[in-house]
Amino acid sequence: MENQTSLKNSIFKSSATQKLLAFSSLLLLVVIFSIASPNFFTQSNIKSILLATAVNGVLAVGVTFVIITGGIDLSIGTVMTFSSVAAGVFITMWGLPTWLGLIGAILAGSLCGFINGFNVARFKIPAFIATLGMMMITKGLSLVFSDAAPIYFTNAKLTKHIKFSDISTGIVLGVPNAVIIFFVVAILAGIILNYTLLGRYNFAIGSNEEATRLSGVNTDRWIIAIHTLTGAFCGIAGILMASRLNSAQPALGQGYELDAIAAVVIGGTSLSGGKGTILGTIIGAFIMSVLINGLRILSVPQDRQTVITGIIVIVAVIVDVARRNKK
Questions:
Q1: Domains of the chain: which residue ranges?
Q2: Which of 6, 183, 227, 321 could lock 113 by a disulfide, CB 3.0 to 4.6 Å apart?
Q3: What is the pTM of this model?
Q4: What architecture does CATH give domain 18-326?
Q5: 171-185: per-residue pLDDT in tens?
Q6: Which DSSP helix (H) or strand (E) runs through 172?
């Protein structure tokens, strides 16, 4: 009993230290970019960072569940795009009510996640391969269903006075709606991860899937459920992206998965599974948004931004591996 209590306290302290380091890194980035450019810490740029974080943050929160199982999902970016295209097809082309089209978009993302989970759990396809295949499928389907052209939500309204674009860009108490939705989604995800059976088995599968299975848990069913939940978050991110642009852009999406996964890793979630927090992921998402935004303001070329992002991910993984080896 004493050993278990000591282990829990050690894990808690490690997680708290990781989040503190991540938050300190975020503050340091803000200070550095504010000093480097007077255009960084302005109201319009802060709003831009918040809106960017909302989309990437929802994706990161969703993929946190999969990464905690020790898996990976490379399809979240293109599933997000596919969901936004689905919303465009349902609302603009089919003429369905906007609210119904939004539900359809979330269901489209959930279906993609379900297929990912089914392939991983039942067919035992490695998550990397299964989700890579889904990434290519949804990328192609987005172009097919949209005829490779943007779908605009010009006349779409959620209610008589709320336009489709207001879902993301509307302002409540000075805060964009997309940011409010992001935090609501993050709180919901935190509740699911920490206070539900799905969250409990999520950690158990990531810590030791075989032991969890031998204890009588239907791990296949829970893996499918976890991937489906991740797909639903992709659907929400797709709605936020489409609303922000007031259009579904079928060519967007690929590359978003890298920023989301980077945010999760930076936030302290272990790629080996069994460890992770939603709060850490939120901090990681803000770090990625601030970093990308700051580099753009400083006119750092896109290719160099990608190199810097890759280096940060590798460093975060090295730190995680070193921490686990030390334990």
A1: 18-326
A2: 227
A3: 0.91
A4: Orthogonal Bundle (1.10)
A5: 888 889 999 999 999
A6: strand 171-172
